[in-house]
Amino acid sequence: MYSDGSHVWDEWDRFMATQKEDITMIDPGVVPASYWHVLDDGRVQCDICPRECKLHKGQRGLCFVRARVDDQIVLTTYGRSSGYCIDPIEKKPLNHFLPGTPVLSFGTAGCNLACKFCQNWDISKSRQLDTLMDSASPEDIASAAKKLNCKSVAYTYNDPVIFHEYAIDVAKACREQNINSVAVTAGYVSPEPRIEFYQHMDAANVDLKAFTEKFYWKVTGSHLQPVLETIEYIYHETNVWLELTTLLIPGYNDSEKEINEMTQWVSEKLGPDIPMHFTAFHPDYKLMDVGATPLVTLQKAREIAIENGIRYAYIGNAHDKAGDSTYCHSCGVCLIERDWYELGAWNLDEKGRCNKCGTLCAGVFESAPGAWGSKRQAVKLASFR
């Protein structure tokens, strides 16, 4: 089932051994990066995430998009995207942040993790910059979101940690247009850039991939503790709305023991109001030999979470209307009915309180839900310039 984790470093060694790139600052997508320092042996260390890649001239980090030019680290994908799409906010997934509203979503290439099960692997594992077919300035994105009546912009598909500078500039431009910024992330970021990044975010969904170091190391090539620290930081030190997602992979991270420990940790460290999404795995990338997650596994995970005090536990990537709807933790009435990404009954008042008993539902709500529904609409930003 598990390998020893060497797949990450075998891939890394092969990649680094072939690097003879002459990256140039003339390229408009190449900009100076933040968070790095020069080592005594002449290598330059990238400090954006706990991987701390140490680079010789012309080399790129494992994420592919942060590289060394001369004696500095640069971001090579500034202003470049794998494409833009309007999604329902529930697809991020965020169930308690402006329900029913559209979100303009985009990502770049690369990733700082090496997940065997990646379901966006054609983007996150890309080693070709020509996959970045659309380009836009931060102001272009904010303007397009405004014209398209999107309430938010989501940094997603791959992890915004690795395009830190671009994401922050987009977020600044969005804030000037009263557009929210949503980070969809694995949370694998170092403490100092984490502080700067979340100053500019309004909501985040952190992918808590499992609750064992064994899984993180052998399946993703990373470590659990930095992710837990990011989750605690967002909740305790910022005003960012936070939700968590765990993709349950049969035989890897779906045991009742592990789910029990995870949900107990969330309840104890963060409290009962953090929405948790348990989503179904489908065979992809390097885990094609693992079957899809049974619905009963997702339902059991939700049940365990609720037993451990989590008020808002959800099922995703599988059809379960009851398991995807929101209920009042006081009187049990259905507050927000969901069928996939379509909203039905709405029983919250203008302040986010239960219409029946007046109990507040945790989240960021408007007086009425949006009506975007389940539509997914590709967008060419060039038409909005």
Write the layout of secondary structure elements.
Blueprint: H1 6-17, E1 31-32, E2 36-38, E3 44-46, E4 54-55, E5 66-69, E6 72-75, E7 80-81, E8 84-88, E9 102-106, H2 121-124, E10 134-135, H3 138-147, E11 152-155, H4 164-176, E12 180-185, H5 191-198, E13 203-207, H6 213-220, H7 224-237, E14 241-248, H8 256-269, E15 276-280, H9 295-307, E16 313-316, E17 326-327, E18 334-339, E19 342-346, E20 377-379
Parallel strand pairs: 9-11, 11-12, 12-13, 13-14, 14-15, 15-16
Antiparallel strand pairs: 1-6, 2-3, 3-4, 5-6, 7-10, 8-9, 8-20, 17-18, 18-19
Q: What percentage of amino acids are in beta strands?
A: 15-25%
CATH class of the largest domain: Alpha Beta
Residue share in helices?
10-25%
Radius of gyration: 21 Å
Short description:
The protein has 385 residues and is α/β, with parallel strands linked by helices. The chain has helices spanning 6-17, 121-124, 138-147, 164-176, 191-198, 213-220, 224-237, 256-269, 295-307; strands spanning 31-32, 36-38, 44-46, 54-55, 66-69, 72-75, 80-81, 84-88, 102-106, 134-135, 152-155, 180-185, 203-207, 241-248, 276-280, 313-316, 326-327, 334-339, 342-346, 377-379.
